[in-house]
Amino acid sequence: MILEVPILYSFRRCPYAIRARMALSIAGIRCELREVVLSDKPSELIDISPKATVPVLCLSERVIDESLDIIEWTRLKDDYLLLPSEKLNTQTLELISIFDNQFKLNLDRYKYPNLSLNQDPLENREACLDLIKNVDELFLAEPWLYGKNISLLDLAILPFIRQFRNIDTEWFDQLNEIPNIRKCLNYFMQSKEFLSVMGKYDQWQLGNTPVYFPPK
Ligand SMILES: N[C@@H](CCC(=O)N[C@@H](CS)C(=O)NCC(=O)O)C(=O)O
To answer: Among candidates 35, 20, 26, 27, which has minimal Cα distance to 96?
Structure first.
């Protein structure tokens, strides 16, 4: 199927979708955005990606249904701004994987204690905090991890830490042991890179007038 622009299935609050939208927006790649409600996924999404997670980017020639692969695809584009010198090195990939898996698992158990039987949500909160402490000293530079330009690691893990903070902002904001992350997260949450991808969209349904992203 030849598409005029790629189609992005997304969910506003999903940290995986946030990072994909940020990479697409920074790279200036225009898409049709289809906002998904996770409890009511459209069959068009399930048909192209049976695992049915978001984000999914549908191109004319293929479907990309992993957020990191979407980011990697944006890196192939010409006027790409996202820290061109940063390579997907082993350390970066390992850190991203820790946040995608271990951190996210504990985050969900902390956020939805009823879904995880026999779990103490505060233990899960501590497990998340330990993982953040492990990366805090990496975030010494300002405003981003490597200084002036946003990097892959910034946009890969900060959406997860933001979600963690949102569960109990008062508690998070008084933590002294992660000063660099708190500073960087505050910058992230007010940055144009983040705010410009957090617009609200109605649930997509077949036949809707297309909504384009990034917004002009
Ligand atoms: N490894 C995937 C993970 C994506 C993912 O798990 N997204 C969540 C939303 S935050 C999802 O779609 N979950 C499916 C569901 O809840 O049914 C990626 O990086 O794209």
So the answer is: 20
